[in-house]
Every structure is written in structure tokens, then in C-alpha cells.
Design goal:
456 residues, alpha+beta, 29% helix, FAD/NAD(P)-binding domain, Alpha-Beta Plaits, globular, 22 strands, 7-stranded mixed β-sheet, 6-stranded mixed β-sheet
Length: 456
């Protein structure tokens, strides 16, 4: 079989390549950029992604490199409006792991290298044509040489400006938010610095300020700064601008030092309706982009890749009919829609500016997050362990499409190893009876009535 062709070399592409290689399939992964990411970009790895990395065989390296965060709080100046502990997450990974994207790509690249696969850099997808039995791609190398490559499947993980998505002519519906935002990776000092094991959101009438703690006293800051006028082009913030935001919104006594990345951006919320057209697939930012609220973007993309990889492997190895691939788009598109909706709602709430609306908004977390059930619900939503596929074409039955909790594993994590199948028997009655704390997972069936692997 010719190699499966993966376009892009970010976390989603690297995950897809590593998973396909783990199942013994030939893979080519290429990217037009000459080098990997050098900035932190996406930084949060949530519980469900860590569980899936465990079955991939690379979770340990991430745990070693990352900074564990145990909770989140919503504040107004120095006053706590509400908080949640990630200790309520029913997972061995009951925390958020802060890992700069540059490190994520380095670790996944090393993991991929274990399978003998190297990213082909400065190779660009110029065009492609798809037929019923193959995709033919025209690739352009850095020296101008052109190559025609045939592949059984083409996987586009090439970001928001995806060449694969453009080649399909697929719509990317959504909108760009009008507010400007700033991002800063700095070191924080001072008595008023937020806790180093807490994701802190400061709500303010001028806009939110979110602080993600990182290793070594460093932090990622994200803040809305209002809409720039037509005669005011967007510019990168200075360290003085960042300090002014801290002074104004975080209650004082916090100093920002040693910036390594300062940037301005706008939030886009967009999504492709279909993640699959014949033998061509979209995953990650090529399929969906949204607000950084909740830190879900990279996690959602990595889970896209894992969901797709085991299905391609089962079909390629004859363990399922090609109809199995029909489940990828409805399963992952529904998740992408949910993440986009939740992130947009959080952003809209955080950017309210009307004084009466701000007062009402600030009262809500103080009241609601006073209840443990609400704290737990927030933690579970962020962790993504309750993502499920009840409406998947593979799902049938009361607990269809839900996750099997680690407490119910009988041996290695389901889905680990070289075979794209987790188990040949249904779950125990204990697994089916367990509460949502232990969670559940259906043993969905493909059209051939074969047991499916531990899906993502």
C-alpha cells in the first residue's frame, strides 16, 4: 500500500502520523515550513488527551516536560468570584498539563521518530485530485522540483489556511470577532501574582485577563483590549502595555518581566461542515478554529487525529468495511460544534462591557460556583472526559458512545498496542452500572458487527 499522506506538521499531524505508524501503516508527513514551531502557542493538555497519549505510549514524556495545574478560579481584582478543583476529574490525570506547543511538537516528533518516520520539510501540497480508489497529489519541493504522489487517503492537518480544505472547495463558515486581543509569555513576580497551580481569569469591565501558569515562574497572559479603529492598525503589545493590563485588571502587586513572546490577534470562530470528502479528510484547525477560552483547540484536534487513525487502520487491515470511515465526520464534527459553541459563549460572557451586564455576570460565578456540583461540572467540561458519541452511526444502546473510565481497564489502556482493536468482549456489568464519575463507554459496532477499538 502506498503511504497515507498527511499534510502539516503540528501536533495534530504528528499525532495522526504516529498513530497510523503504531498500527503498522506506511505514512508520509510533510510541511511547507522549514522548521517546527518556536513559540508556545497552544499550551494546555487536558485529561482526556493525556489518557489517549497513555495508550499512544508518549504520556510519560509529556508529564516530565509539563507543569501541572490543579484548578481554575474566576477573580475580579483581588476578590475570588468562584473556583473549581480539577481533583474532581475522574481520571488518573486529574489536572491540566501546561506544555508549550514548541515542546509538544518536539515530543511528538521524537515519538514519531521511534517508528522511523521523519517530517519532510519545505514540501508543499500544490494541488490534488481524488478518485474512488486513490488521491493523486502534486508536491513542490524547496528546490522547485515537482513530485506526483499517489496515496490511498489524504489527511489535511494543515491549519486554518488549509491547502487541503481549499483544494476541496469546502466552506469554512463562521466569523471573526471584532475585539483585539493581546498575548504575552512573561515571568510574573510580586505578592499579587496568581497561584502557580491555578488558571486564573480576571473579569473586568474593559475585558478579561487570563493567566495560565507555566514552569519556572513564567505565565501565558491573554487579554481583550477592545476594538481598534479603522485608522489604528493592530500592533504587537509592549511589555509596558502588558504591565498596564496587570495593574488595571489584576489588582496590583504583580510585575511582568522577561517577555519571550508578545503578540496581537483576533479570535476567529469557524468550522467546516464536513470533515471528510471521499478519500480526503480534515482534522484540527483545518476543520475548526475557535476562541482560546478553555484551551480546547489543540486537544480537540489531537482527538480528531486519534479517532481517524484507528478507523483508517481497521479499514486498511481489513478489520472493517470502508463504511466505518463514514463515522469520522459526524462524530468529530459534533464535538467541534460543541467546543466552538462553548468557547464562543465563554468569550461573549467574559467580554461584556455594559455595567449592569458586568455586575450580573460577576454575580453568577460567585453564586453558581459556590455549589460543588457546579464546580465539578466545570472541571469535567474542561477535561473533555465526558465527550461521547451517542449519535454516532456506530452507536446503539443505552450507554452508546461513552468513555470507559480508567478504573475499568483490565490491563493496558484500551487501544494500546499495534492492533487497532481494544477488546473482543462487551464491558462488565460493573462498567455499565458505574456512575458518571467512573463514566462509561459503549462497545459500538461497525457494519460488520466487529467490536470497535477504544474510540476517542
Amino acid at each position: 500500500m502506498p503511504p497515507i499522506l498527511i499534510v502539516g506538521a503540528g501536533p495534530v499531524s504528528l499525532t495522526a502520523a504516529a498513530e497510523l505508524a503504531r498500527y503498522g501503516l506506511p505514512v508520509r508527513i510533510l510541511d511547507r515550513s522549514p522548521r517546527p514551531a518556536e513559540t508556545s502557542r497552544a499550551i494546555v493538555v487536558w485529561s482526556r488527551t493525556l489518557e489517549l497519549m497513555d495508550r499512544m505510549g508518549c504520556a510519560a514524556s509529556f508529564l516530565e516536560a509539563g507543569h501541572r495545574v490543579r484548578g481554575a478560579a474566576i477573580r475580579s481584582g483581588g476578590r475570588v468570584l468562584g473556583c473549581t478543583s480539577f481533583g474532581d476529574i475522574a481520571s488518573a490525570y486529574d489536572f491540566a498539563l501546561i506544555v508549550p506547543q514548541s515542546d509538544t511538537e518536539r515530543l511528538l516528533t521524537a515519538h514519531l521518530r521511534n517508528y522511523g518516520i521523519i517530517v519532510e520539510r519545505e514540501v508543499e501540497l500544490a494541488s490534488f485530485t481524488a478518485s474512488d480508489d486513490r488521491v493523486t497529489a502534486r508536491l513542490v519541493h524547496a528546490d522547485g522540483r515537482e513530485e506526483e504522489a499517489e496515496t490511498p487517503w489524504l489527511v489535511g492537518c494543515d491549519g486554518a489556511h488549509s491547502a487541503v480544505r481549499h483544494g476541496l472547495g469546502a466552506e469554512f463558515r463562521g466569523a471573526t470577532q471584532r475585539d483585539d486581543w493581546v498575548l504575552a509569555d512573561v515571568r510574573l513576580e510580586g505578592a499579587g501574582s496568581p497561584p502557580a497551580d491555578e488558571i486564573t481569569t480576571y473579569l473586568h469591565q474593559d475585558g478579561p485577563l487570563v493567566v495560565f501558569p507555566m514552569r519556572g515562574g513564567r505565565a501565558r497572559l491573554i487579554a481583550a483590549v477592545g476594538e481598534a479603529g479603522p485608522d489604528q492598525p493592530r500592533t504587537e503589545p509592549s511589555l509596558a502595555d502588558v504591565q498596564a493590563l496587570l495593574d488595571h485588571r489584576a489588582g496590583g502587586e504583580v510585575r511582568a518581566l522577561d517577555p519571550v513572546w508578545l503578540a496581537a490577534f483576533r479570535i476567529n470562530g469557524r468550522k467546516s461542515r464536513d470533515y471528510r470528502v471521499g478519500r480526503v479528510f480534515l482534522a484540527g484547525d483545518a476543520a475548526h478554529i475557535h476562541s482560546p477560552a478553555g484551551g480546547q483547540g489543540m486537544n480537540t484536534g489531537i482527538q480528531d487525529a486519534i479517532n481517524l487513525a484507528w478507523k483508517l487502520a481497521m479499514v486498511a487491515k481489513g478489520g472493517a468495511t470502508p463504511a466505518l470511515l463514514d463515522s469520522y465526520s459526524p462524530e468529530r464534527s459534533a464535538v467541534g460544534e460543541m467546543v466552538l459553541r462553548n468557547a464562543s459563549r465563554m468569550t461573549d460572557m467574559a467580554t461584556l462591557s455594559n455595567p449592569a451586564a458586568v455586575a450580573a455576570r460577576n454575580a453568577v460565578p460567585h453564586f453558581v460556583l459556590g455549589f460543588h456540583a457546579a464546580q465539578e461540572r466545570l472541571a469535567l467540561t474542561l477535561s473533555e472526559i465526558e465527550i461521547a458519541y451517542p449519535d454516532s452511526p456506530l452507536s446503539s444502546g443505552r450507554h452508546a458512545g461513552t468513555r470507559l473510565a480508567p478504573d475499568n481497564y483490565d490491563g493496558p489502556p484500551p487501544g494500546s498496542g499495534a492492533v487497532p482493536r481494544s477488546c473482543s468482549t462487551p464491558p462488565t456489568r460493573r462498567a455499565a452500572r458505574n456512575s458518571r464519575h467512573a463514566s462509561r463507554r459503549s462497545w459500538n459496532r461497525d457494519p460488520g458487527r466487529r467490536p470497535s477499538p477504544a474510540g476517542c
